[in-house]
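Worked problem 6 (solution included).
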Amino acid sequence: MGSRFEKDQKRRLISSYFSVVLSIALVLFLLGLLGMLVLNAKKVSDHFKEQVVLTIYLKESAKEVETKQLEKSLALSDYVKSIEYVSKEQAAEIMKAENGEDFMDFVGYNPLQNSIDVHLKADFVTSEQLEKISEEAASKNFVDEVTYDNDLVNLMNDNVKKISFWVLVISGIFTLIAVLLINSSIRLAVYSKRFTIKTMQMVGATKQFIRRPFVWQSVRLGIIGAVVALIGMAIVLYYLNKTFSELQLLSNPVLVTLLFVGVFALGIVITWISTHIATQRFLNLKTDDLYY
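Solution. The predicted structure is:
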């Protein structure tokens, strides 16, 4: 009979530990994913900003040496990420591929212009900077026109500000929820041993002596949960980096390492604090209050 009771208690204990580890792992995993989003938010926004194209249309009278000189000066500018010269013939082929028919069959000639597509660095993709750059390029006497989608730029910058704000708000809320969930799981685990705590206290054990094994047990569970969460994060990060290779999510290994270390440390710190508070609560309770 005693053996069966011990097995039943052991099974309940393992089940309790498993639920604590699972709760810690899930919360830290989701918190880690949110951390990855925060760390890569600027990189993602920069990627989309750098897709904006500033097009410089050249006059028919533009000489090759002038065009080459403009390309060279743009390539050396600190605000340019990349440039591409598009001849009128290339532009015609692109339009033909997009529309599925050759428009020159109707007009009889190629009305398009030679142009230079300029991709700017993300920090310079603002209405003010684009206006300044376009005015500088348009001042060349062989440049006919400079165009870019100003409405798109304004919309993109506004959305980036809004998204950044809400990501920070959600991060704060989610961190608080994570602490509360882990704390709740730890308190339930300690609650199941409240009579053991009070018995040890009644026979003369000090609070620190009673608290120590509970804290170390919870810290071990926190470490296991954190390791499980980190494995999940590593798998997700690997597949995201493989799927969206242009974002280069692993280009800064120092930040990724700091994130992983932070999640691991958070699992230890939260479980340690939660267990310390929970055990202290039951240590301060009167014997009669343990039944409520």
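Discussion: The chain has two domains: 2-47+162-291, 53-148.
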